[in-house]
Amino acid sequence: MIDLLNGWNLSKFIYNIMLKSYFKTALRNMMRNKTFSVINICGLGLGIACSLFIYLWVQDESRYDDFHANGKRLYKVIVNNKEKSGSISGSAEYSPGLLAEALKKEIPEVEYAAMVAWEDDLLFTVNEKSAKENGRYASPDFFEMFSFPLSQGDAKTALSSPDNIVISQKLADNYFGKESPIGKTVRIDDKRNYIVSGVVANVPEQSSIKFDFMLPIQHFFDDNQWLVSGWGHYGPATYVMLRSNASFKNVNAKIRDFITQHDERESDKSLSLQSYKSMYLYSRFTNGIADGGRIEYVRLFSIIGVFILLIACINFMNLATARSVKRAKEIGVRKVVGAAKSGLFGQFLLEALVTTSLAVVVSVVLVKSLLPAFNSITEKHLALHIFDPFFILVLFCLTIATGFIAGSYPALFLSSLNPLTVLKGSLKFKHSDVIFRKGLVVFQFTLSVILIVCTAIVYKQMKYVQTRNLGLDRSNIIYIPLEGDLAKNYHVFKSEVMATGLIRNISQCTTIPTNVHTWSYGYSWSGKDPNEKIKFMEIHVGYDFIKTMKIQLSAGRDFSFEYGADTSNFIINEEAAKTMKMGHPLGETISQQSNGKIIGVINNFHARSLHDPIEPLIISLREKPESGVAIIRAEPGRTKQVLATLETAYKKFNTKYPFEFSFADDHFAHQYHSEMMVGQLADIFAFIAVFISCMGLFGLSMFMAEQRTKEIGIRKVVGASVARIVVMLSKDFLLLVILAFFIAAPFAWWAMNKWLQGFAYKTDIGWIAFALSGFAAIAIALATISFQSVKAAVVNPVKSLRTE
Question: What are the pLDDT digits (tens) for 176-209?
């Protein structure tokens, strides 16, 4: 036993000595080759930093809605449009107002059901203090289903009375201070008083459903009675929580024809359930299956993170194997005195791990420093918890994986060198080794070029979106919400601001014209198949709407004060005329709740984002607005005066509400917020990928110039020009970059073609983006290589030959 312990202690002692020796050797080599060490550490550090940024973003995205205790039993009800063939043409989260209660009563597996209305900024008033706050309406079961814990009040009864209100802790602190708000009165939108029945913890950032206060759904139904007047009227989303022993598959099959069973006229509708946890990432449906949405960006950035890390690892591999000549004699001597291949492999792998560890330190410093800027771009509140055990584990695994990937091939190559060959000074790279190293350079630049091309096409599409003719003019357009007394005083407000001479036109609309989300199946006309259900987008507008938005009339006229019957007449777009199969629609009668004539046909304009095709649109006149937005076209170049005038008039006619406005351009840009964010991040990551690749190319070209010092000197002596030597040193690398471009191009085309499928209106990919991207990659590589090539070429040949 003693002998065994002594043997163990001796082995441990020898191991410690060897490990210490390996560390000393690693640090010594790093100090001896400072330039290459800096290139390796900075390249790996940048690559790991990018991976960490993407890891934090992906982690945040994938953790959405994770906090609900009953998350596995929560589902959103999706309404699918069935074709006669049985396929599904579209899916939406909108649902009949009658659905939630009916599911709870008639489907035994459904334990709770709730309709949850969309977010809305409503006037929140307590005594004399008021401000706009974010609120929703929801069914009584809401707090039983979702894990928004109440610090005060009872989840079962919090929304049971129509006059209850549940507020967040933030609102409780802002409006009631240290007093308990329970039982206190809150006035919402200057219409109704509510009694605080509960205080809920502030909603987490990673929640799909956000609110600062929650109201009972009953008053929402009171204000929108059409929603509960039949199964053909659709409003906010419905959510269900299944019982613990319920089968998702069985319930999904059972509710499929639920709407049709209640109303045979809705035979084109079917229901399905989508996991609540997945709905944030999967919001796009194909044939009734959720298969797209933000998950595409999660996948995209995950791939980019791997790309950039691989590029950084390839730098290390290339530089380590290229510089093996410098360490050949060291390896030969160590092998002659008895060093085993496994020992040398371990040493060089340890050196890679030491370099990676230093790179990880650099990456953590970079991430910590740049995280505020990253949060600003992504509009998130990501934090780097350095001492979090899970993060430490992630960092450790990343260090080990990166170290092994970057160091395994150089370690294997160096430890396999023949001692006799290297001690004779006749070390030459095998053809296979040279091909492998060149292959790594090609692979590295292939990834970089893919990112450059994709970035160029994303930029091109965003430019196309911003400059495409929408069929209306959004320049100098200001939106003001019609709420409170402003809706009642709209016509007086319009007259007063028009009299200032600063406003060209004013009109109003039920919604922002480039973001229409209301439609109806209830229109009929002569010749329509009574069994066919056709969806029409619809908006109600005021006089001068077409003139204010500068929409072109292709036939007929606008609504006019001179025609009293216009209050029941319609204007349609060209797509609606096409859908109705009307060659000459003017004067034709269409009906919904009452009959009216078509008095005008407008050119198609984009009432939704460019992701969606133009749909048939019916416009009706609403003389007295109850809500919506006032649309103001201001005189160009006088924005500040216009806003001051509007604010003065607004406060005169709507004293209880804060003055709020928005520009049409800002609303339009918000529709492409995700794409803009992706474009910005793609620009940054593409630049970093190219920068890291060029760092490696810089190191390789520096090493090659160093290795060919004598050859350069001799060539200069016999008359070679500087240009000829630069070409000689550069051409091999440039050929590799050109080859990388031709490999990258088809992959980039495929990826961008797939991305552009998400837009109904898109730019052509074209060859120009590829040509410019290829030229940029070659120019950047040439500039990187030429620096070292020119530096080597202008050295005095006498000095070069004397050095050799």
Answer: 988 999 999 999 998 899 999 999 999 998 899 9
Structure tokens at 345: 């492999």
**Strand 192-200 vs strand 164-168: parallel, antiparallel, or unpaired?**
parallel
Q: 580-612 pLDDT, tens per residue?
A: 888 888 988 888 777 889 999 999 988 888 888
**Residue type at 567 in one-letter notation:** T
| Structural Rg of the chain based on CA atoms | 34
Cβ neighbours around 755 below 10 Å, total: 19
Beta-carbon contacts of residue 253 (< 8 Å; ≥ 6 apart): none
Largest CA distance in the chain: 113
- Helical H segments across 671-721, by residue range: 673-707, 709-717
Question: Any idea which residue has 């350069």 for tokens?
Answer: 712
Beta strands per DSSP E along 390-492: 477-481
CB atoms inside a 10 Å sphere around CB 514: 20
DSSP 209: S
Which tokens go with 616?
């048939």
Asked if 559 and 529 touch (Cβ cutoff 8 Å), the reply is no
Query: What's the chain's length in residues?
Result: 804
pLDDT in tens, 497-535: 999 889 999 999 998 888 888 888 778 888 888 777 788
pLDDT per residue over 44-71, tens digit each? 888 889 889 999 999 999 999 999 999 9
CA angle at 512 for the pair 507 and 514, rounded to the nearest 5°: 115
Residue 261, SS3?
Answer: helix
C-alpha to C-alpha distance for 151 and 143, rounded to whole angstroms: 12
- For 337-353, the pLDDT digits (tens) are 566 666 667 777 777 78
| Residue 472 Cα distances to 170, 513, 576, 630, 671, angstroms | 41, 9, 17, 16, 16
Q: What is the C-alpha separation between 645 and 252, in angstroms, rounded?
A: 56
Residues with Cβ within 8 Å of residue 175, at least 6 apart in sequence: 124, 126, 129, 167, 181, 186
pLDDT of residue 15: 45
31 is written with which tokens?
């100090």
Strand, coil or helix: what is 84?
coil
615 contacts 607 by C-beta, under 8 angstroms: yes
Angle (deg, nearest 10), helices 768-793 and 431-467: 130
CB 729, CB 793: distance < 8 Å:
yes
Mean pLDDT of 745-758: 86
For residue 762 the two structure tokens come to 């898109």
Mean pLDDT calculated for residue range 369-376:
90
Structure pTM? 0.82
